[in-house]
Specification:
Layout (H helix, E strand, L loop, with lengths): L3 H15 L4 E6 L5 E3 L2 H8 L4 E7 L2 E6 L4 E5 L5 E5 L9 E7 L4 E5 L6 E5 L3 H4 L13 H8 L6 H6 L9 H10 L13 H20 L40 E5 L2 E5 L9
Parallel strand pairs: 2-9
Antiparallel strand pairs: 1-7, 3-4, 4-5, 5-9, 6-8, 7-8, 10-11
This protein binds zinc ion (ZN).
């Protein structure tokens, strides 16, 4: 879950509350959420730092700090960052609380405890190997074609690989493949130039639309104000197993591709085109 549009929404909606403000306190309700450095060092280094910027790279949020270190947040499967004015607003499953000098509390809510906090000197050590950002201008159809060339992996698996393209996960991969009529098991090396061009366009259109709809709340994703996004209302196949395809009326099927549940229309996305 949270993929590029969800993490981008968190970044956009969190930033007015946090930029320019100092971290005045950290409360860890589950210490395992801190991956590096030690819990003691994490807390003592973070307190007193001013947040100078917030950026997204792939599914990571990067908080730039006044001492030039970066706080890197990964929401993983079930994480949300929820803004509150005081501790009485603490949501259930809160694992960490960051307090700011403007009275804002950021609650890291994470029912399944896969989320991660890291404090690092150099963020490129964590995000440096990620693939291109699909919404940046330099992600062209040619770049996509070059990266797909000679790749034998199923398209579904490749689109979800963060070192191939950053930020896409299972939901938006399913939607992009449906929009282009590509079966999730098809091998990348068999795509035509025209299919690659359509896939490139679909990826960008689907991600932009999902950002406009503030992300998809299929399971446990919430916006920083605690409300849900509506991007999932536009899903054609993702999480719609058994429903009828909006294009042809065939039932949407679910298969597992390299351990990822994958939804597709068997008629619109034939295995052998
Ligand atoms: Zn169909």
């Amino acid at each position: 879950m949270p993929e590029l549009p969800e993490v981008e929404t968190v970044k956009n909606e969190l930033s007015p509350y946090i930029i320019g403000h100092c971290i005045s306190g950290i409360t860890l309700l589950w210490e395992g959420i801190v991956k590096e450095p030690s819990v003691e060092e994490f807390c003592s280094c973070l307190i007193g730092q001013r947040i100078t910027d917030i950026a997204r790279r792939g599914k990571y949020l990067i908080f730039s700090l006044s001492n030039d270190e970066s706080l890197i947040v990964h929401l993983k499967m079930t994480g949300s960052l929820i803004v509150g004015r005081d501790l009485s607003e603490e949501p259930r499953f809160t694992r960490a609380i960051i307090q700011l000098d403007n009275g804002i509390h950021i609650f890291f809510r994470d029912p399944r405890k896969f989320g991660a906090l890291r404090l690092v000197n150099d963020s490129s050590r964590i995000v440096g190997k990620l693939g291109p950002e699909p919404l940046e201008a330099d992600f062209t159809p040619q770049v996509l074609a070059q990266r797909l060339a000679k790749r034998k992996a199923p398209m579904k698996a490749l689109l979800c690989e963060q070192n191939f393209i950053a930020g896409i996960g299972s939901m938006y991969a399913d939607e992009a493949l449906f929009a282009t009529g590509i079966h999730p098991m098809r091998s990348a090396e068999n795509l035509s130039d025209e299919e690659i061009e359509r896939l490139h366009r679909a990826i960008r259109e689907i991600l932009w639309a999902a950002i406009e709809n503030k992300g998809a709340s299929v399971n446990t994703y919430f916006r920083p104000d605690g409300t849900k996004g509506t991007a999932h209302c536009d899903f054609k196949v993702a999480h719609r197993g058994g429903e009828l395809c909006v294009v042809c009326g065939a039932p949407v099927e679910r298969i597992v591709v390299r351990s990822r549940g994958s939804y597709f229309c068997p008629r619109c996305q034939p295995e052998k085109p």
